[in-house]
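Re-run with default settings, no changes from the original entry. Doing this only to confirm the output is reproducible before filing.
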Amino acid sequence: MKTNLFKILGSLAVASLSLVPFGAKAQDIQFYRPNDQKGVNVFETTKADTVPFKGLKVKVGGNFELTFQALGESNTAIATTKTGYTGNVNSLIPLTHAFQLPMANLAFDVQLADGVRMNLTNYLASRHHEDSWVKGGYIQFDKLPFLHSAVIDDIMKSVTIKIGQSDVDYGDQHYRRSDGGSTIYNPFMENYIMDEFSTELGAQFYYFNKTGLFAMVGLTDGLLNETVVQTTKVDAVSGQPLKYDPAILAKLGFDKQINKDFRFRVTGSIYSVNNSYSSTLLSGDRTGSHYYNLMENQAIANGTTLSDAVDYNFTSGRVSPGFSNEVHAFMGNLFLKYKGLEFFGTAENITGRGAAELSNRWATQFAGDVIYRFPENTQNFWLGLRYNTLKADMLGMGDVTVNRTAGSFGWFLTRNIMMKLEYVSQEYVNYPSNNILNGGKFHGVCAEASIGF
């Protein structure tokens, strides 16, 4: 059945406009990243003190997205049966061209005091969780007025302190990724093949120099789901119960608007935890992929204990090497912007293992985005191209490779309303013949409408 693309785009636009909160008046919040187009290409919140403090303020914000998916898939895995399941467990779920389940976020940003801001973000609806969940919350100090110290006030002109359950600031890609209903920062439909993202309890300390140099050090509990219960799982290396070691992270970078046309940013980040009950740096997304039901088997989905087959593999199109016990990660990022032309590049190397493994495995990932935004005065349209490749030593499989190429066209109808169209092609290489991903490929078109306010 042939789908009329213009009808799809038209319905996405109508749905987007129907959700705009007309009459809503935004509150000015200090040291804050906007949820709309103004937040694009914003990384750490700057130390620019441009919003005067006028007392307690509460900003209610949110994001909503809906996506039409028209993707096809294939594989060459040998037919395999499995006890307890009916038919070939390496056959793929038949897909059709249709709308996905929409996702939505709700965020509260509160100006508590001069230079003191709180954030609380909720997942109202997502692919992975059918009910509303709290993503996390944190408090950010850009000033410490309650200490009444001129010396501290002067130090805080260059320092930011962030404490709470928040995004782990490892690398720069997490500032550009889609997060449930929040997709307005991402010029593409999905995140990287190996998606580095988690929310962990801890603190991050930033120092910003006027030259453009900045540094961050942080310490977290290394966990997405905190618990005070001692685990019964045993580390295969030590023979002892798994520990709850803290995770250490750090970032060093340079970010400067060289002149009115050219911005240059380069960063290097590390994240390291030696022994964790359940590290989720590479699997911490609780919302799910924006590609649905790809490279999956219906019998396996039906045989899970989950009530919705969408939940069976909510990370469709992504690959995690399964480093749940020990993780040592490094990411380098380069961001260049000359007028409307942007390049964002990523190089990453990770080693780690699961609790039952005796030695570390590895994964390397490279990605490059080229974006051209136009016209020059508004940059509310864009054309984009991404290439992403992952090579990893997967447990029980050996070395595998996954490659993705994506092209996108996008339009900010207003500062708060965005539409994008993407063509994507992904292939799986060197997977064993009895694995469902053997010879796996998917390709096709997705269209998305997104709102952020």
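Residues 5-26 have pLDDT under 50 and may be disordered. The two ends are 37 Å apart (CA to CA).
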